[in-house]
Reticulon-like protein
Amino acid sequence: MMSESEEHGSLLEKIGDKIHEFKKDSSSSDSDDDKKSHKSKKKHLFGRKHPLHNVLGGGKAADLVMWRDKQKSGSILGGVTVIWLLFEGIGYHLLTFLCHLLIIFLTVSFVWSNAASFINRSPPKFPEVILSETQCLIIAHVLRKEINEAFITLQSVASG
């Protein structure tokens, strides 16, 4: 049986041989014709057959992951980091976050509507929402049914 250090050593030798083989294949070409044919048959590290951009889908998401547009990728990384710090680091909750966003949106809309007359701009146009009586009754019946089922579940849990 091979000891653990011998297995580790043979594994490192295999990895080293693969890397040297890759380097040797990529640097061995003498003439211009060999170089042109070598570029068309480019070997990829770790045996990939396609470029990494194609493996990732080849679209805008692949561009973001590969940092081709550094400003977009950086702003997404920064935004995700801020959200992670809010929720994990500070202990902020999603429902509180959504409520604060809605309050900010309502405040901005109110200020914009009232300030529009002072700066000679048109006020924001909000869509008019009209619910029919039948829609309200359907929603009320569905909610009543769900609330009653919740009460039945709570009663069965409480009574054991």
